[in-house]
């Protein structure tokens, strides 16, 4: 089943770093996932997230306010 991964962030350097980490993990591990960047502040607020970047997997907020390691992302997606 395809996982839906959303990266919430307004385009700051940390948000870009998180996007890169997530894309690398998905590619390197052949994970079936769609990655969506959510940069609209109104959409981000729907998740009740005040600190970005935030990582949402299948509509569950898993990480917020920091850039995760590749290992951490892999664990969350496995």
UniProtKB/TrEMBL annotation:
<dbReference type="InterPro" id="IPR036249">
    <property type="entry name" value="Thioredoxin-like_sf"/>
</dbReference>
<feature type="disulfide bond" description="Redox-active">
    <location>
        <begin position="12"/>
        <end position="15"/>
    </location>
</feature>
<keyword id="KW-1015">Disulfide bond</keyword>
<feature type="active site" description="Nucleophile">
    <location>
        <position position="15"/>
    </location>
</feature>
<dbReference type="Pfam" id="PF13192">
    <property type="entry name" value="Thioredoxin_3"/>
</dbReference>
<feature type="domain" description="Thioredoxin-like fold">
    <location>
        <begin position="5"/>
        <end position="77"/>
    </location>
</feature>
<feature type="active site" description="Nucleophile">
    <location>
        <position position="12"/>
    </location>
</feature>
<protein>
    <submittedName>
        <fullName>Thioredoxin family protein</fullName>
    </submittedName>
</protein>
<dbReference type="InterPro" id="IPR005243">
    <property type="entry name" value="THIRX-like_proc"/>
</dbReference>
<dbReference type="InterPro" id="IPR012336">
    <property type="entry name" value="Thioredoxin-like_fold"/>
</dbReference>
<keyword id="KW-0676">Redox-active center</keyword>
